[in-house]
Amino acid sequence: MPKSLRPWRTASAAPQPDPARIARLERELGIGDGEPFTDGRRCLMAGWGDALDASGVTTDEYGRISLTSTTGSHALGVTTPGPGGYRIQVDMGFHAIGPNLAAHSGLYFGRDNADTYQFGAPGTSGGYHLVVRQSGRVRLYRHALGSAAGIALGAGDVHTAAPKAGEPMTFEIDVTPDTVEVRRLGGPSWTTAPIPDDMHCGGHFGLSNGSVDNPAARPFWDYLVVTEL
Questions:
Q1: How far apart are CA 152 and CA 203, in angstroms?
Q2: Of 107, 125, 176, 187, which is the most buried if we count CB atoms within 10 A?
Q3: pTM score, two decimals?
Q4: What is the C-alpha separation between 55 and 2, in angstroms, rounded?
Q5: What pLDDT band is residue 180 in, cutting at 50, 70 and 90?
Q6: Residue 13: helix, strand or coil by DSSP?
Q7: Which residues on adjacent β-strands are paired with residue 153?
């Protein structure tokens, strides 16, 4: 198995939620780059690969990945999707909640080059950013070259259930040639719906601690799978 698809999770004897989903992901993550899932979707990336050895990256007792700096980012690489686009599926949560419920973390994606996105810094590349606030509100933003402020997309914030400390939320990000959509699994209304936007179809993506200002409340991520649509 290529190093980029090394085991995506450290061994743990601790009980894990949703064993059926875990079993499915374990089967899927056993495939290599370019091989299809049983439904025909081609795997583009699975697991954390070299990120597990990177400076500033750590894992907890469950094998979930975190960034050690309070407001840091980490590039995960680049996907090369087919003509239909790609989907990023990932679990994300916060080690602690509060006191600032407006604080947010998330993922950046669709970047046009390998420059790492940094929240609050002028953009060196176009792309998008998923914002997940500790209140449960979700929003998509587009990055403009040279601007530190993101451009909010969609009709407004998506109101989802408030996260609980240490418990993961599952997100799917769909990028097609014409639209961008983010959904949090678990509620039928927890989606931006497809947003018409074709500004950035680059494949560079990564993790962002965002604006979290409480070191104890750093986010964690788990179960990364990227597939073609």
A1: 20
A2: 107
A3: 0.82
A4: 21
A5: very high
A6: coil
A7: 140
